[in-house]
């Protein structure tokens, strides 16, 4: 069975400081991983996907299969980055993609 | 704007009194999902529909049922809510092809059981 672990429930950093949100997974197949974000009073939305290897809002995440990790990083945090971040692992059930979420990390960027 | 809409946003029901939560979408997506999210926990998939095909997760209690009368609408029925069913219920959609990877979420319905 697949599992996603986000060890930090809360993370606070100062504006301009680097930030890293940790995510570890267990999955027997070839994993496909995502980061979803929920800003205050907004709906859950996709931030980035490991396959695309792109930077979104300054965030990047690299899949490390050896360490079974998919940590989210940003070199210089901004106050608008304050949000709830969920790491998610995807698998197919028939033709439908299913997500297994971690329990989330609440990031607060202090002024 | 094309989107996923959930009604109501807040629902209070009594212990044991059936309740129905509603989700609609204007994205014309094939797949609709229901997640349960309890306080400080991960969203947990209850079931999903691929078009009219219903797919239940193995550990979803029988107390939870779902209906999808057409592409746009999907309902979550809780037949006899218990105190442990108090949670945020999230509806999501996706296109349902192997290329599309994003799920689009509604704002959620917060259910309180008294």
In the predicted model, the low-confidence regions of chain B spanning at least 5 consecutive residues are none
Percent strand of chain B: over 45%
Helix and strand element order of chain B: EEEEEEEEEEE
Rg result of chain A: 14 Å
Mean pLDDT of chain A: 93
Number of helices of chain B: 0
Low-pLDDT ranges of chain A: none
Mean pLDDT of chain B: 94
Order of helices and strands of chain A: EEEEEEEEEEE
The fraction of residues in strands of chain A falls at: over 45%
If interface size is counted as residues with C-beta under 8 Å from the partner's C-beta, which chains form the largest one? A-B, 24 and 29 residues
Provide a brief overview of the structure:
With 111 residues, chain A is an all-beta fold. Chain A has strands at 3-5, 10-14, 19-21, 24-26, 32-38, 45-49, 60-64, 69-74, 83-93, 96-101, 105-110.
Textual characterization of the structure:
The complex is a heterodimer of chains A (111) and B (114). Chain A is mainly beta and 111 residues long. In chain A, 0% of the residues lie in helices and 54% in strands. Chain A has no helices and eleven strands. In chain A, a hairpin with a 2-residue loop joins strand 9 (83-93) and strand 10. The model of chain A has no long low-confidence stretch (mean pLDDT 93). Chain B is built from no helices and eleven strands. Chain B starts with a strand and ends with a strand. Chain A binds chain B through residues 4, 9, 32, 34, 43-46, 49, 86, 90, 92-104, and chain B through 4, 30-31, 33, 40-45, 48, 50, 53, 55, 90, 92, 94, 96-98, 100-108.
